[in-house]
Amino acid sequence: MTDLLQLLVFGIVFGSILTLGAIGVSLIFGILRFAHFAHGDMMTVGAYFALIFVAQIGWPIYLALPAAMIGAALLAILIDQSVYRRLRRTAPVILLISSFGMALLLRAAVQLIWGTDNQVYQPGINVPYVVFDIRIKPDHLVIVGASVILVFAFHLFLKMTRMGKAMRAMSDNVDLARVSGIDSERVVIWTWVIGGALAAAAGVLLALDTRLNPQLGWNVLLPVFAATIVGGIGRVYGAIAGGMFIGIATELSTAVILPAYKPAVAFTLMVLVLILRPRGLVRGMN
Amino acid sequence: MELGGVIEYGLFFLSFVGIYALLSLGLNLQWGLTGQFNIGIAGFFAVGAYTSAIVTTAPSPHHLGGFGAPLAVGLVLAMVLAGLVAVLVGLLTVRLRTDYLAIATIGIAEIIRLVLKNEEWLTNGVRGIPGIPRPFAETPGAGTLGQSDGVFLLVVVALILIVYLALEAARRSPWGRVLRAIRENEDGVRAAGKDIERFRLEAFVVGSMIMGLGGALFAHFVGFISPEAFTPEFATFLVWVMLIAGGSGNNKGAVLGALIIWLVWTGTEFLTSMAPPEYVTQAGALRLLMIGILVQVILLVRPDGLLPEETAERK
């Protein structure tokens, strides 16, 4: 029982990270209509941005995190404006290919700049708290806390601001949103700001939980996509449920199967959802 | 001596082009003709390579088999197994939209890689399978000829020719017309009473079998395989760049793309080898970066590729 509760803790931590990635993928899909394959590597880049602030300037992680989010948002805009924007007029599938290429490009750039070795933000042991035989690392609390704050902030943004409203409108029906006078290019820019920033946050938190390496984000791309699809692709509130579901399910699965097959669990759940409930488990934004 | 070295390198170079040309032709059937987005090429490539390796190597305590079977048996079984995996994937995904198929195929490829890495009884895990024979290496009287890249290249060229002619015939046949029609207008084809799912599945399976054949040839060419050889970078992404650069929808373009991109890819190796020695460890990343930029440029500047699909018969 304790073992399962321990795995549940790991699952909630992993789920918090997946949620941040899945919101971005879902939002980008809802507005631009393509699966963004560079999202995992965007997470990696964000994690390394934070490393600059931690290692070079000596900032604590709670300052480096927002800085990395801003950096990744700017990078996302740059990628969109230099490449994706020009491909938007063609079929969405061209964007898919382009983003797959962008994934490799980003990963290669990370390897080139920061090398391929494992790195950490803060060396040393993260002494866990022990509550009823369940071990919880301080970093785990940081990860879940940061994720809850960011998701809540994003919720407020969607509900309270004009831009949030415009985003929901465009995600519901692009043409209708356009004729009602929404500036679609501005919405697209904001989509990348939020997608990039949340991806960076997910990357930083994931690196905090594990280690920085160039494969960091690529390795969780599949669970992130699984979370997006389970939640119903294009529905940002579904992404939260999907992230938690996939995170907890993959961690619990290690009680019965080899941990090496964790990505396979996420994938299997995703395929099951695609076959049985192609519109996602929960009803969300649309 | 100098000339001999150049010829030898040329044969080695062209053998790789040939293997990639098969992958690219397989992808062209799936993507170029039918519009199916497979980014799990690495998976089918690996299934083909491992199948043929296990079937043809000498018995070994470190992995399943080897069964010491003749090379032709290895190649056929490689295609059969890659085809079976494709049937499974296809049945699950054939109704899905492009994005979902893309995610599903990349997932399958990653799971195949996990299996190859972790199931040591089957594949010897990360230590890989050595001693995979060359074509005609066992033929009596062949001597050292069986080890030469020239003989290997002849086998590859012969197989490409067969696959190419078969694909061209298929493309011009009513079957190929239905595939292209599905790509252009799915609802129209459905309205015409065609079983879209069946056509899609057929194209997906045949394309994957060709990829499996490419994988088997790769295994016999390099002689040693491990899961590291089947990463998405080399086994999937390069093939996509080749098809897009050559011209998707055009079988000649698929082969031409393989030649040109492999030339560029080896060219980047030449370029990075001139970099200062302290950057040597970064060279691989730099090469990928260059290819990554190249694909964006191609998509922006010449999205139809060097040899665009022949559309005369449609317009």
Describe this entry's structure for a reader.
The complex is a heterodimer of chains A (286) and B (315). Chain A is built from eleven helices and two strands, in the order H-H-H-H-E-E-H-H-H-H-H-H-H. With 286 residues, chain A is mostly helical. In chain A, helix 1 crosses helix 6 (162-172), helix 2 (39-57) packs antiparallel against helix 3 and helix 2 (39-57) runs parallel beside helix 4. Chain A has helices spanning 2-32, 39-57, 61-87, 92-114, 138-160, 162-172, 174-179, 184-209, 216-230, 236-253, 262-276; strands spanning 129-131, 134-136. In chain A, 54% of the residues are buried. Chain B has twelve helices and no strands. The mean pLDDT of chain B is 86.
Top keywords for this entry?
heterodimer, A: 286 residues, mainly alpha, ABC transporter involved in vitamin B12 uptake, BtuC, two-stranded antiparallel sheet, 2 strands, B: 315 residues, 70% helix, 0% strand
Rg for CA atoms of chain B = 20 Å
H/E order of the elements of chain A?
HHHHEEHHHHHHH
Identify the strand order in the major beta sheet of chain A: 1-2
Estimate percent helicity of chain A.
Answer: over 70%
Q: Give the class of chain B from helix and strand content and strand pairing.
A: mainly alpha
**What's the CATH architecture of chain A?**
Orthogonal Bundle
Shape of chain B: globular
Look at the structure and give the mean pLDDT of chain A.
87
Number of strands of chain B: 0
Low confidence ranges of chain A = none
Helical residue percent band of chain B: over 70%
